[in-house]
């Protein structure tokens, strides 16, 4: 799994690309407080090599909690900027700082 960030000089956004190797998975989405935890808004596209990938424009100078939703199971990004405890879910969420 990986995250790449590309800051744009012309706009106050960061292009964030999420990559998830999940050859056996049917559906992968990235859900977080930037999309109201909705998998419909953030499905990743499956590539021929079995990796799921998607790029999203997120406003700069913000912090977002997120997880991957892989075939209905929540998975954290091990390379997240940090982790934040979430009392509602009773677990840690990955945190993205842009």
UniProtKB/TrEMBL annotation:
CBM20 domain boundaries: 8-98
One Gene Ontology MF term: starch binding
Gene3D superfamilies on file: Immunoglobulins (2.60.40.10)
InterPro entries in the record: AMPK1_CBM, CBM20, CRP1_MDG1_kinase, Ig-like_fold, Ig_E-set
CDD domains from the UniProt entry: E_set_Isoamylase_like_N
Pfam families per the UniProt record, alphabetical: AMPK1_CBM
SUPFAM superfamilies with a match to the protein in the record: E set domains
Family: Belongs to the 5'-AMP-activated protein kinase beta subunit family.
Listed name of the protein: Isoamylase early set domain-containing protein
